Structure formats: structure tokens, C-alpha cells
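Researcher: I'd like a candidate sequence for this fold, 64 residues long. If you have to choose between options at a position, lean toward the conservative one.
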């Protein structure tokens, strides 16, 4: 499983940023190729925010 992590910042206050994790079903290579498009699609519903960066990485399993 791959984690697509977005760093999003508020347009009106660019230093107000936080991370959002977006579900990405695919390989790390697919995320590298299509992650930007998935991030853009995710951001369409958030007009007050802009995408500062994104990252694809293996999802870490947690013991819950």
C-alpha cells in the first residue's frame, strides 16, 4: 500500500499548512507517475487551499 501525502497551505495565510493523506491504490511507480494528478483532483474540492508539495512513500503499518 502506498501513502500519498500532501502538504497543503491556506491561500490567505501561506504559512498555515498541514499534511493530508490521500488514499492511493497502486505501486510506488504508479504514484510517482500519477500522484500529481491524484493530488490535483483532491485539491479541486478545496479552493481555499493550495498544494505546496506531495510525496509518495510506502505506507507504514501501525499496531492498533
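Model: Candidate sequence:
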Amino acid at each position: 500500500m502506498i501513502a500519498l501525502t500532501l502538504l497543503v497551505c491556506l491561500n490567505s495565510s501561506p504559512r498555515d499548512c498541514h499534511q493530508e493523506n490521500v488514499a492511493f491504490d497502486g505501486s510506488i511507480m504508479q504514484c510517482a507517475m500519477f500522484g500529481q494528478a491524484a493530488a490535483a483532483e483532491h485539491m479541486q474540492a478545496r479552493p481555499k487551499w493550495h498544494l505546496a508539495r506531495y510525496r509518495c512513500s510506502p505506507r507504514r503499518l501501525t499496531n492498533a
